[in-house]
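Translate structure to sequence.
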């Protein structure tokens, strides 16, 4: 598993040896999950020392419990690039940090539909209790894991409020960033990704919310490596197809 550290609820673990890489995981992800471990191992095999940040799944302050712990950890170390997934991509977008960024299915907006209509009202409730089932574990990918994932718990109004506030105050998109997403994502807003990301910085893949839990993940991973090393120019305009093996 590697070395561990904790900063204000965010847990950091180090995997592999080589070029230091910060990876801010998504909501409910943790290195013990088979498909997350697959990605961490693949990055380590590619020559990275991966500093994986496991974030809390219920917070009442985006800055205090998400942004500041990650920012503080990064300030004490040298990273040439940062990788992020889903909610981790929302955290990384708020970091004032001049490094190459690679985003995997970033949660930059609430998915259109009932979710977007209901959450603003839900967020007004004055409580941090988890009242709403997330259902996230059923929509992350296609590759089954040896042990079924335990749900990270439901959503609280306080969490929903902080996420919506962070989404509404995103800083400008940083040149040199690469964004990976699938048009069939069932958890995050694809339109929000498209509105924010220049076409030259976008890499679309065929699969589910977690590319690393989707068929064809090996092909997508090669482009993730290229983006980490050379930026969006190495992968823009490409689309990976779904495979059945």
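Result:
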């Amino acid at each position: 598993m590697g070395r561990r550290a904790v900063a204000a609820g965010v847990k950091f673990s180090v995997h592999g040896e080589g070029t230091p890489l910060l990876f801010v995981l998504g909501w409910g992800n943790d290195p013990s999950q088979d498909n997350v471990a697959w990605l961490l191992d693949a990055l380590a095999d590619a020559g990275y020392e991966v500093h994986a940040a496991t974030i809390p799944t219920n917070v009442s302050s985006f800055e205090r419990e998400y942004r500041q712990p990650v920012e503080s950890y990064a300030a004490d170390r040298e990273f040439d690039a940062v990788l992020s997934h889903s909610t981790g991509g929302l955290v990384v977008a708020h970091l004032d940090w001049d490094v190459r960024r690679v985003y995997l299915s970033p949660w930059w907006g609430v998915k259109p539909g009932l979710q977007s209509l209901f959450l603003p009202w839900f967020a007004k409730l004055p409580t941090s209790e988890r009242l709403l089932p997330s259902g996230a574990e059923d929509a992350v990918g296609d590759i089954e894991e040896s042990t079924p994932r335990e749900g990270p718990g439901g959503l609280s109004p306080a969490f929903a409020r902080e996420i919506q506030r962070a989404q509404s105050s995103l800083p400008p998109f940083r040149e040199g960033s690469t964004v990976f997403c699938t048009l069939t994502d069932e958890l995050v807003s694809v339109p929000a990704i498209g509105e924010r990301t220049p076409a030259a910085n976008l890499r679309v893949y065929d699969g589910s919310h977690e590319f690393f839990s989707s068929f064809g993940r090996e092909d997508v991973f090669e482009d993730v490596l290229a983006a980490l090393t050379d930026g969006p120019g190495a992968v823009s305009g490409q689309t990976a197809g779904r495979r059945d093996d």
